[in-house]
Write a structure and sequence with these properties.
Layout (H helix, E strand, L loop, with lengths): L1 H7 L6 H4 L5 E9 L8 E9 L5 E9 L9 H35 L3
Antiparallel strand pairs: 1-2, 2-3
Amino acid sequence: AMVEVVENGTGVRAVPILQGTGWRMGGKTGTADVRRGHVPDGWFAGLMFGPDGRARYSVVVYLQNGGQGGRSAAPLAAMMTRWFAQQEAAQTRADSAATDSVAAARGRGG
């Protein structure tokens, strides 16, 4: 149900930001009316799912005077998810390069 909120519900503005990462996000959006005549606070709370479908990180974004949560906080949470995806991809590439270097050294008798 939480993934549905992001992919087809109030958090749908996060979807374009996540495209191409292989990651998904699920959560709930919310809006807190603070005072009449003021921009409401917006929030998103949820989970970041890696390419294997497992929950990797939790995320909470609360934006004072940020407007509706689906319009402001959910896209920011998606940007954070995209950053984590990029960091994990970079680490995987670095680990792979290190493994390749060790294998090459062993092949040369190192």
